[in-house]
Amino acid sequence: MTGGAAKAVTATAPAAVETPTAKTPTAPAAVEPAPTAPGPAAAGDAGPLRFAVLGDSFSEGVGDRAGGAWRGWAALLAQGLTAEGRETAFLNLAVSGALGADVADEQTPRALEFRPHLASVVVGVNDTLRRTFDIELLTRRLDRVCADLHAVGAVLLTACLPDPGRMLGLPPPLARPLARRQRSVNAVVHALSARYGAVHLHLADPVWTEDRTLWSADRLHPGERGHRAVAAGFHRLLAARGLAHGARPSAKPAQPPPTRTETLLWLATAGTGWVLRRSRDLLPQLLLLAGTELRHWADGTGTAPLDARADDALTAALAATMGR
Description:
Largest sheet: 7 strands, mixed
Number of strands: 9
Structural class: alpha/beta
């Protein structure tokens, strides 16, 4: 799914800041690039602060349902961006299943029309799940998205993410090719974040991936607790750069994390459908990649040649994009 209506709302900042209790989860670790010149939001631009969200299901809010709809970290963050008396205009263009091409070709033009002060760009996991994965093409697309948004004065928000093979607990021969791809995507995101002075949140660390209470039953999307942790992490970084002036999003979830039974039920029902839908595209190639992994292990070379090949492709992608 790459279509659907964008969510546009106007949020008024809460009047008070909530202080988390001792049992509140800590926000994931962050990487802070050197700040660039402030965008219009920091320069006292009149009117509402405009926050645009581009990406896939992670930013659409899947895993955090409130009021019968997905809410997610971006909506939670929007509530704490401005001080009392100033509004936030919030446009969420993210949709489940979006690829880098969808963000570049469909979401970015709409975001540019909105002329955001802040724009989050988090995408790439779905690209790693496609047989057509091309790190150089994805790098070029993401660079174009970031350059266009940066050119209109938007401060960018980015994040790197864990690989889905690890989160799903796939066997090593299947998980390693996906991990290799996601590491490349994360390296590209790091490079572009530094290039455009983005506010970057690092969500691939073990402190994030190993805490199952942060994740929904599908193991691929944050649950409410995870979305709140992401919102709090971005708020902390934005506040440090003078770009968030409202209440920090509360880290206390209203809903409990999924039980083991709920997780197993999802894997046996909806999870099966998720895998089957992607099997038409990904699974045949993934099985070939797994076969290659096993052959290298059998002949004693291990994963070094495959890692080197992925590193070479990443180096070429960054050189082609960052060298201009």
